[in-house]
Design brief:
Keywords: Isomerase, Rotamase
Distance between the termini: 20 Å
Catalytic activity: [protein]-peptidylproline (omega=180) = [protein]-peptidylproline (omega=0)
Protein name: Peptidyl-prolyl cis-trans isomerase
Helix content: 10-25%
GO biological process, one term: protein folding
Order of helices and strands: EEHEEEEEHE
EC number: 5.2.1.8
Largest sheet: 8 strands, antiparallel
Strand order of the largest sheet: 3-4-6-5-7-2-1-8
Strand content: 15-25%
Radius of gyration: 14 Å
Length: about 160
């Protein structure tokens, strides 16, 4: 793989930096929108409001409630790319074309999501920092975190 700093993101989390390879080959519209939001500073300071042990860590909501977004819905870009540990996907409602700014990073293999959610990237380095995010109490169905950790800064590597 060649160096592609335009399609690499850095997420600075409390426990360290996460390096994410963007996948415009799978989700060109989502990758374009995520880079726009990153460059606007939209994600800086947003909480990982929903983190479920053995499943995923969800962030990208400026409200921190799971109800916020940037106000721009994206058409689903579904693929056969498997959701595995480190896969970055877009959160959405039951409407397949309702993704906005919220995303998740799989903490484990999540094959049941494959083909139903958009894959936009994969963690190349720093999964230990994702694993270290504060999690919801065991048994909490919603996955809501009481005192969530925040994405301190998101950067497109080309801009770093």
């Amino acid at each position: 793989m060649t160096d592609d700093s335009e399609n690499t993101l850095y997420f600075d989390l409390p426990a360290g930096r996460v390096t994410i390879r963007l996948r415009p080959d799978l989700a060109p519209s989502h990758v374009t929108r995520i880079k726009e939001l990153v460059r606007q500073g939209f994600y800086d300071g947003t909480p990982f409001h929903r983190v479920m042990e053995g499943f995923m860590a969800q962030g990208g909501d400026p409200k921190g409630t799971g109800t916020g977004g940037s106000g721009q819905k994206l058409k689903g870009e579904f693929s056969k790319e498997p959701f595995k540990r480190g896969t970055c996907g877009m959160a959405r409602t039951q409407d397949p074309n309702s993704a906005d700014s919220q995303f998740f990073i799989c903490l484990a293999d999540c094959d049941f999501l494959t083909g139903s959610y958009t894959v936009w990237g994969e963690v190349l380095d720093g999964m230990d920092a994702v694993d270290a995010l504060k999690k919801a109490p065991a048994g909490r169905q919603s996955g809501a975190v009481d005192d969530p950790d925040h994405l301190q800064k998101a950067t497109v590597a080309a801009d770093a």
